[in-house]
């Protein structure tokens, strides 16, 4: 485990990064390679220090994705859309069996499943 001073430095780095998140969207498009390197560096630091891993997708991102899929504003998406969204997010593997109850997937179900699967991936680190 790193010394306390190193953890404090890491936490300060994370705080600084959070302050610049508003400009981060622009960085992604202007310098995608550097942006991805910074993301990987943050993951490495978090893993080495024992600090909680950064979460890159929040509920507003999940809501935006759901709204794009639910273009008719029914309040639910089809099972096929749900499965494809999980694939797109890297949260579904081929051959995995998902249960389709025939009623569609609501936003709450979608959000809960995305959050659950994301946490499972992070806990593997």
From TrEMBL:
Domain of life: Eukaryota
Record-given protein name: Uncharacterized protein
Organism: Ovis aries
Gene name per UniProt: EFCAB10
């Amino acid at each position: 485990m790193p010394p306390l001073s190193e953890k404090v430095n890491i936490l300060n780095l994370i705080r600084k990064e959070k302050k610049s998140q508003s400009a981060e969207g622009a960085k992604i498009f202007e310098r995608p390679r550097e942006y991805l390197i910074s993301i990987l560096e943050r993951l490495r630091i978090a893993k080495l220090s024992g600090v909680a891993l950064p979460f890159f997708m929040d509920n507003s991102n999940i809501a935006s994705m759901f709204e794009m899929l639910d273009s008719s504003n029914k309040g639910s998406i089809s099972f096929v859309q749900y499965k494809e969204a999980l694939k797109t997010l890297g949260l579904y593997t081929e051959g995995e069996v998902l249960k389709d109850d025939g009623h569609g997937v609501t936003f709450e179900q979608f959000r809960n499943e995305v959050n659950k699967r994301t946490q499972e991936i992070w806990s593997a680190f």
